[in-house]
Amino acid sequence: MNGPLADRIRPDTLDHVVGQKHLIGEGKVLHRLISSGTIPNMIFYGPSGTGKTTIANIAAKTSHKKLYKLNATNASVSDIKAIIKDLDTLENSGGVLLYLDEIQNFNKKQQQSLLEFIENGSITLIASTTENPYFYIYNAILSRATVFEFLPLSPEDIKQAVLRGMNLLSEELSVKIGAEDEALDFIAQTSSGDVRKALNTLELCVMSAQLDEKANLTISVDFVEQCTNKKAFRHDKDGDSHYDVISAFQKSIRGSDPDAAVHYLARLIAGGDLMIICRRLMVIAAEDIGMAYPQAIAITKACVDCALQLGLPEARIPLCEAVLLLATAPKTNSAIVAIDAALSDINSMDTGDVPKHLKDAHYGGAKKMGRGLTYQYPHSFPNNYVEQQYLPDRIRNKKYYQPGTNKNEQTIQKYWEQVKGKKGENG
Q1: Alpha-carbon span 77 to 66, nearest angstrom
Q2: pLDDT, position 103
Q3: CA atoms within 13 Å, Cβ hemisphere of 170
Q4: Is 352 left (phi over 0), alpha (psi -120 to 50) or beta?
Q5: Nearest alpha carbon to residue 335 among 406, 393, 402
């Protein structure tokens, strides 16, 4: 067993890579490029342990180019010169693919030393970075490469890799290895989307566990806690406790209790499921704050993006910022009430046809069919408003949106009451 488990289990085909289906799923751009063997210059951007090196290795294999690997944290210009010296050798007649890890650690001069060879096609560059490439990679490199963003892996994706790792370790050690479901969930959830971290945890547990009386090995959640010095986020087989905390998390924010909201955020962070926190925060921003403070969703999205890029433990900071913002923001559920009421009508009744004056009239014969004839263009009227019917006849007087009592919606309502009160003058 030479090398870490993550290296020994590294997939050699795209079919065995977990996660990143937005890039390597069937029919996706990166999948098509790698399958064709025509590899362009690329930059892989995303957190550690998300498959950047693995996919670069597979790309090199399909391209039939000689693969060189450098890590910019300890490589220098002399290392690049050594590769350049080998370009004209028989061994490299098919071309060279250079995988440059952590390219953000190369300065401008070091990055520029590659330009000539990237331009003439002698070197195909695949660079990886955990930092935003548009901040850390020079434009001359960026303009000659395509950026692909890698996302943190979901606990479900990581669990697949952990199970595969268990099978390999079982073969290598000639020992039957099992694990409690809760232990596997704990490893997957506390890895922060990093499959390498999860496999390192698994290997540590296996190598330090004791065999039972049948010479088998079973990994319990308690033992994983000992190995990682972390407490498991406990939940029963049906996940009731887990979803109870999520429910309490949203209800505390909805109830404007920042202290309780931070408490339940801490519980979810301890469970390590970063993705479910981020998804829930986005829902809360739209469902519970909504029109009372419309900017909240944009700020929350920025905090979520920051958290996903940082990974845990640093992600706790922007996540807490988002929680405190949402918990202390004014509240309204007017958006969800409006859309649910509209959907209820769509699903339960025939709401009727679109009014003729609103139908598309940008084609020959539309006027003969009476379409668009009486439509009035609001921007041609004062305050960009003119009274006309928009809803179908059958529900023409239906009201879906009821403004909340918060300051923002009340201000908007007063504005439109003032504008619409002048409809006689406008029309």
Answers
A1: 19
A2: 93
A3: 15
A4: left
A5: 402
Pull the structure tokens for residue 341. 């009421």
Coil, helix or strand for 148?
Answer: strand
Q: What tokens were used for 206?
A: 């296996």
Structure confidence by residue, pLDDT tens digits, 259-294:
999 999 998 888 777 888 999 999 999 999 999 999
Cα(299)–Cα(195) distance, integer angstroms? 29
How confident is the model at residue 424, as a pLDDT?
41
Q: What is the pTM of this model?
A: 0.59
Q: pLDDT per residue over 365-409, tens digit each? A: 777 777 888 899 999 999 999 999 999 999 999 999 999 999 999
Those residues with Cβ within 8 angstroms of residue 146's Cβ, 6 or more apart along the chain or in another chain: 40, 41, 42, 43
Q: In a 3-state reduction of DSSP, which class is residue 178?
A: strand
User: In sequence order, what DSSP letters do the residues of 202-236 get, joined into one string?
Assistant: HHHHHHHPPP-TTS-EEE-HHHHHHHHT-------
Confidence of residue 236 (pLDDT cuts 50, 70, 90): very low
Number of other residues whose CB lies within 10 A of the CB of residue 284: 26
Q: How far apart are CA 58 and CA 36, in angstroms?
A: 12
Report the sign of the C-alpha dihedral through residues 18, 20, 21, 23, in that order.
Answer: negative
Other CB atoms within a 10 A radius of the CB of residue 285 amount to 26
R_g of the chain computed on alpha carbons: 29
pLDDT band for position 423 (50/70/90)? very low
Structure tokens at 90: 């028989």
Question: Which distant-in-sequence residues (6+ apart) come within 8 Å of 71 by Cβ?
Answer: 100, 101, 102
For residue 305, the model assigns a pLDDT of: 92
Burial zone of 408 (CB within 10 Å; 0-12 exposed, 13-18 middle, 19+ buried)? middle
3-class DSSP state of 326 = helix
